[in-house]
Automatic annotation (TrEMBL):
Gene: nth
Organism: [Clostridium] polysaccharolyticum
Residues bound to [4Fe-4S] cluster: C195, C202, C205, C211
Xref: Pfam families: EndIII_4Fe-2S (PF10576), HHH (PF00633), HhH-GPD (PF00730)
Cofactor note: Binds 1 [4Fe-4S] cluster.
Entry keyword set: 4Fe-4S, DNA damage, DNA repair, DNA-binding, Endonuclease, Glycosidase, Hydrolase, Iron, Iron-sulfur, Lyase, Metal-binding, Nuclease
GO BP, one annotated term: base-excision repair, AP site formation
E.C. number: 4.2.99.18
Domain HhH-GPD residue range list: 46-193
UniProt function note: DNA repair enzyme that has both DNA N-glycosylase activity and AP-lyase activity. The DNA N-glycosylase activity releases various damaged pyrimidines from DNA by cleaving the N-glycosidic bond, leaving an AP (apurinic/apyrimidinic) site. The AP-lyase activity cleaves the phosphodiester bond 3' to the AP site by a beta-elimination, leaving a 3'-terminal unsaturated sugar and a product with a terminal 5'-phosphate.
PANTHER family: A/G-SPECIFIC ADENINE GLYCOSYLASE/ENDONUCLEASE III (PTHR10359), ENDONUCLEASE III (PTHR10359:SF18)
Root EC class: lyase
CDD domains linked to this entry: ENDO3c
Catalysis performed (reactions): 2'-deoxyribonucleotide-(2'-deoxyribose 5'-phosphate)-2'-deoxyribonucleotide-DNA = a 3'-end 2'-deoxyribonucleotide-(2,3-dehydro-2,3-deoxyribose 5'-phosphate)-DNA + a 5'-end 5'-phospho-2'-deoxyribonucleoside-DNA + H(+)
Name of the molecule in the record: Endonuclease III
Length: 228
């Protein structure tokens, strides 16, 4: 059941979205370099526990060597491991890539499927990866919960959950559909530049007035100062 919000809560949510639109692009932008659905699927699978910049360096050569799902399906495991060695977790990533590619070739004619259930049936493909494909390739309204979205959505009070799937459903209630993919793009930019995990620049943040985490810490600081 969809959560009901008060008028004040809705106004606060809209104010946050307006500020994100104002400060960041409202254009759909994917940080992983790709030319088609197959390449984006591979790049997204490789991006687990790794930066997009590093993935883009590796896939520049990888996509020259493996030009189709058939190429990945027929790849030698040890050789593929060496090709993606610098990305970390290369044993499991290479194994999943080959298994995923084989299923795509056999079950889906070599083309990345569109439906969530079909995507998540593939080896190494969870809801996050599936929603990246659905949003960026098929333009299906989809919410991608990565580390930035998880951390900042909690700070903003959009969710209290820790599980990515539960966060996804919370954000479906909070965000209008036209911001589902856009929110992820904007929050990644915000999380990398201002609301970083280790040292958030709260005083520079244009969302601090609406950030429940910041407001909570501000009140705690004020109470402490009054008590001294």
């Amino acid at each position: 059941m969809a959560k009901r919000f008060t008028k004040q809560e809705r106004e606060r949510i809209q104010a946050i979205l307006n500020l994100l639109d104002e400060h960041y692009t409202t254009e759909y932008k994917c940080y992983l370099d790709h030319e088609n659905a197959e390449q984006l699927l591979v790049a997204t699978m490789l991006s687990a526990q790794c930066t997009d910049a590093r993935v883009n360096i590796v896939t520049r050569d990888l996509f020259q060597k493996y030009k189709s799902m058939e190429d990945f399906a027929n790849a030698d495991l040890k050789e593929l491991e060496q090709d993606i060695h610098s990305l970390g977790f290369y044993h499991s990533k290479a194994k999943n890539l080959i298994s995923c590619a084989k299923d795509i070739v056999v079950k889906f004619g070599g083309k990345v499927p569109r439906e969530l259930e079909e995507l998540t049936s593939l080896a190494g493909v969870g809801r996050k990866t599936a929603n990246v494909i659905r949003g960026n390739i098929f333009h299906e309204p989809s919410i991608v919960v990565d580390t930035h979205v998880k951390r900042i959505s909690n700070k903003l009070g959009f969710t209290k959950e820790d599980d990515p799937e539960k966060i996804e459903y919370d954000l479906m209630d909070v965000l209008p559909k036209d911001h589902w993919i856009l929110y992820n793009i904007q929050i990644i930019t915000h999380g990398r530049g201002i609301c970083t995990a280790r040292n958030p620049k709260c005083e520079e943040c244009f969302l601090r007035e609406h950030c429940k985490d910041y407001q909570k810490k501000l009140k705690q600081k004020q109470r402490k100062e009054q008590a001294e």
